[in-house]
């Protein structure tokens, strides 16, 4: 057993009675490419072109006025300040693309015999744990970069009892999605999570031979693997 000094931050979140079945990080190249070429990019480009067109128009207008010795009631300073502020969506995209490297550093995944752990964050560190009893849907997603780099995402969604009771849209619960993204062994992880979710959820709702004759509650161990 490794000492705490050799463990990652996410490993330290795993309880002593849990068994780590899979652990990994995203493919760095794919993660960074997806962070740069994200859905905000086309919007930011259109916004940038639109603002630059008007900015150049105003600069040309002021240059022509200066050549013709026409006094303007205001200077270019407030216009430049306005365009800098108006380009906020572009700055947001650029900052997001730059911070993808830091976000990658904090991203890690662990699958145990009780649930899935996912860490992330840019300035702060966040750890999420989703028990298998709260996972309801599992799917594989592969985008353009995933297919090119031969990796994939395992996406799973779940509902919490409180959320189902309190929040409903057209009488249907709202599902929250988590993703183990850009991993090379996505098929293996999909099959592992699917088996664990099916076995443990079924064993919890309808006790079967995976549960001993005497049920000792949370101390019961999964024996399916």
What brief labels describe this structure?
single chain, 225 residues, alpha+beta, three-stranded antiparallel beta sheet, 8 helices, 9 strands, 21% strand, elongated
Protein described:
- By secondary structure, this protein is of the alpha+beta class.
- It has helices at residues 28-36, 40-67, 77-86, 88-98, 100-106, 144-149, 161-166, 186-205, and strands at residues 20-24, 108-112, 115-120, 126-131, 135-141, 152-158, 168-169, 172-173, 176-183.
- The protein has a four-stranded antiparallel beta sheet. The chain has a three-stranded antiparallel beta sheet with strand order 5-6-9. Strands 7-8 form a two-stranded antiparallel ribbon.
- The chain is elongated.
- The two termini are 20 Å apart.
Strand content: 15-25%
Report how far apart the termini are: 20 Å
User: What's the total number of strands?
Assistant: 9
Low-confidence stretches: 161-174
Sheet with the most strands: spatial strand order: 1-2-3-4
Structural class, from helix and strand content? alpha+beta
Q: Into which percent range does the helicity of residues fall?
A: 40-55%
The mean pLDDT is 79
Indicate the radius of gyration in whole angstroms.
26 Å
Main sheet summary: 4 strands, antiparallel
Shape estimate:
elongated
Query: Helix-strand pattern, N to C?
Result: EHHHHHEEEEHEHEEEH
Number of helices: 8
